[in-house]
Amino acid sequence: MSKEVPSGRPFRLLRMMYTEGKPVTIYTMQVKQSELAKQLEISRQALNVHLRKLRDLGCIRTGRGFIDVTEEGLNALGVSVNPAFIFIKISPLKREEAYQAMSNFPIQRIFRVAGDMDAVLLVEQEKLNETLRKLALLKGIKETKSYVTIQTLK
Questions:
Q1: Residue 135 CB: number of other CB atoms within 10 A?
Q2: How far apart are the C-alpha atoms of 11 and 87, rounded to whole Å?
Q3: pLDDT digit string (tens) for 98-138?
Q4: Tell me, which fold does domain 8-77 have in CATH?
Q5: pTM value surpassing 0.90
Q6: Which terminus of the chain has a smaller tally of CB atoms within 10 A, N or C?
Q7: Strand-pair partners of 143
Q8: What value, to the nearest 5°, has the Cα angle with vertex 78 and ends 131 and 127?
Q9: For the chain, which residues make up each domain, given as ranges?
Q10: Sequence-distant (≥ 6) Cβ neighbours of residue 129 within 8 angstroms
Q11: What SS3 state is found at 141?
């Protein structure tokens, strides 16, 4: 079953938010607050106090059934919002095995790409060395190129 595609004014609104919006990095946890309180072994009221404080600091956004960790929250955790990219060339006979292994690495995203490279990993800068060490042990990796971002422009 396919989802309905917005049209007319809703589509123009969606397009405007996309073109004029600022891309941000967030981590979303889809969980009910009662379940989260149970996991933390605290009352729902205590959880609300903590969530309100984090929300007031700009570290999170909350809604029905989700909690987003914002860029401000990532900064508070010491997580870089300027990632590193690793471009990888893989031996054709080892690609599937390599993709499977890389999916367990400490990475944010993995992309299969067409062209002179076979995969691109999006990695937190703090995890770059660890990821490169793991790649060095992986059979079939022919070449890697790493790029560290220094500033998000848009």
A1: 20
A2: 35
A3: 999 999 998 988 999 999 999 999 998 889 999 999 999 99
A4: Arc Repressor Mutant, subunit A (1.10.10)
A5: no
A6: N
A7: 89
A8: 0
A9: 8-77, 84-148
A10: none
A11: strand
